[in-house]
Amino acid sequence: MNFHTFLSTEQRQTLSANQLHSLEILACTNQELDSFLTKEYLENPMLESSVNKENKLLADVESIYEKNKSYRDYYLEEDSSVEKRRSDIPAKPDLQFKNLLLYQLHQNDYSNRQWACMEYLIDCLDSDGYFTMELSELSHASAVSGLHFKTEELQTALSCLKTLEPAGIFSQSLSECLIAQLKKKEIKDDTLFLLIEEHLEELMKGHLSTISRKLKLPTVQIKSYLYEISLLNPRPVMSAEDDEINYILPDIIVTKSNQLWDISINDSWMGKYSLNNYYIEMMQKTEDACLHQYFKEKLERARFILNSIEQRKATLIQIVSFLLDYQNAYLEGGGSLKPLKQEQLADALGISVSTVSRAVRGKYLQYKKTILIKSLFSAPVSSCKKENQISSSAVKEKLFQLIQQEEQVLSDQKLAELLADSGIQISRRAVAKYRTELGIPDSRERRQLKFLTS
Length: 454
Known about the structure:
- By secondary structure, the chain is α+β, with helices and mostly antiparallel strands.
- The chain folds into four domains: 91 residues, no CATH class; 62 residues, no CATH class; 125 residues, no CATH class; 74 residues, Orthogonal Bundle (Arc Repressor Mutant, subunit A), CATH 1.10.10.
- Helix content is 55%, strand content 7%.
- The protein has a four-stranded mixed beta sheet with strand order 3-2-5-6, with helices on one face. It has a two-stranded antiparallel sheet with strand order 1-4. A two-stranded antiparallel sheet has the order 7-8.
- Strand 5 and strand 6 form a beta hairpin.
């Protein structure tokens, strides 16, 4: 056995922690960036925002605190005529929502009586997904209706139903609901749980310093908890509504004037961030070495974040500017999408492909319509003329036209031949791939549909 020792040299690119964080900021959509900056602001005294984030978060917590009353607490505030109805069973929830809950259970795992018991409890949910009834009262009410459920049976069924989605369903108070959601996120912070259980009212009133003293925690930590609470849903039923409308918020807004593009990052709603001069001055004057070091580290972090935001903005504008010029005809509605790979754009701008990929990830551009920036890239497809290339989007458009105009149903092979006649050389398998992406059935299925509709 021979052993040899030798030296070799190789070149490797390693990224520092700051470079990695900068790339993460670049990859953020505007909404993700807002969440990131809000959390940083609450934890870093060196960051200053033109928007009062604490008041906004307190308003969010105040809106969810409205639900933090027990069933009986509600009725204690009502007049006697309402109090008399405290044993009434709420109106049944929407059937679709009831089925959504029941579908999460395996009926074969339960007896007919247990299943009927759970259906009975689901019918007792209030409009927000809370269980506000007393089990003893429900047991009595079930006897009147002939079901005769014991309190112990109802308790067993309730414990099972509390494990269902959405997290927090069947909670009997807001604090129970919020803690259930945190546990679902695998957050196991007893101090945060204690804050929710015992200090939510003080938190709503903005008494952060009072809570800080009681829990012996820095105010910065209380602000961080405040942010975590503001992300939770106080009304579980809202999480399960199928008809919820999601709106796309464009990351970049583009206008055109005198044949010149005007590109702006759609981030004005976040507010502007800057360095906090008050704490910078405090850092310069303090004689406490530990406090000075703390402020110094926070200042470096704040400067890094602000620089990364400006770099993100410059990179996005640079990339979008290139795309607007390159795909001008397509964006104006007068032409097809030109073939363009991310590698081509990276080479043209002198940046890495990974930078381009992160910059366009999940971001939307608004011009005449709102589109995903990534959709402006398209892999080239060879044509008969070697000097010409067309985008896969243009091929799909031509393929769609051929199928729309067909009198006799055309096979994928025939479609490939017709595309070749128009200068587009692709295989039958490529035709099948593009046809599937367009959501168009194959020739056999199209022939059947034609027969049925004739």
